[in-house]
Amino acid sequence: MSGAPGGLHATGLRGDVKPQPGWTLPEPRSVCHVRHDDGSVTIVRRHGNPAGPRLLLCHGNGLAIDFYYPFWSLLADDFDLFVYDLRNHGWNRIGARDEHNVPNLVRDQDQVIDGVAERYGDRPTIGVFHSLSALTALLSPHLSAGRSGSLSAWILFDPPLYRPGPGDPDYDALAERSAGMVRRRTDRFRKRSDFTNLLSYLPLLLRAVPGASELMARTILTESTGTEGYELRCPREYEAQIIAYIRTYAFLVDFGQLPCPTKVIGSDPTLPYAYLPTFSLDHIQAVDYDFIPGTTHFLQIEKPEKCVEIMRSFLETNRLIQLPPDREDSGRPPSESRAQGSIQ
Known about the structure:
Layout: E1 8-11, E2 20-23, E3 30-35, E4 41-48, E5 54-58, H1 69-72, E6 80-84, H2 102-120, E7 125-130, H3 132-143, E8 153-157, H4 171-183, E9 188-189, H5 192-200, H6 212-220, E10 221-223, E11 230-232, H7 236-250, E12 262-266, E13 288-291, H8 299-302, H9 304-317, H10 325-328
Parallel strand pairs: 5-6, 5-7, 7-8, 8-12, 12-13
Antiparallel strand pairs: 1-2, 3-4, 4-6, 9-11, 10-11
């Protein structure tokens, strides 16, 4: 099943309770296991249209790429999708905590790119990365072999970068506070509904698409080992560890040395932040940057159609995806054109 309307169904009908929309994740077309230097394994799943341009998608800290289904389902008809989770997240097994660090995440990403090319053929590929995975792509030339830079383009959603302007908040202090909050977070639940009930009291998904809380519960929780109930797939200590050290690496990003065409799509810098502060990048001339008004760090779950529209417009304007001949000069807005065939 592909496309948002097809992936939506009514769930939870009970008495006079109103139907709540839910999201049904499709089975992948195939699965690829990428083994890393330390023995850990990343499970890559293939979805979408194998004849379309290839996209590689990953997520942010503490989340799972399946949580982004409201976003990437909109790409499934036209693109060949390869989705994967960061180490110690999502479908992947939990490994040693001391191996859960930014340099390993950067190397993992490079090796996933190589693993997909080896298994499915070395085709041009566009990286679509949110938050932490966007930062690891930017850090690839500094901390790894730079394989991420060989991608045809990067679409980076709300990367956690430190490029403040006058009057912006103290990033270091906020990172410490965020890490402390994550360490104290409730991480075990008797039922998934206990997790969604907790979310209902928090502003985290206030702007998200209907059904996002239930989707988050299904994709970032797993059955507890040894006890009844559910726990976070990515342990809270692992998530906090990344937040605490991420500021050390955010300084390394050099926007003057981007290895491929890059689009940065940010959340609304005027809104209260849900993760780390969002800095407008308007003052950095080397960056092709837009933000989506009215969105937080979860912009792909809040306004997925707008995210896809901006992304496709960038790819089409820069001739990074090939349009059908009858549409190239049609005069239609880029968002109304469908990607076909290949990446240029």
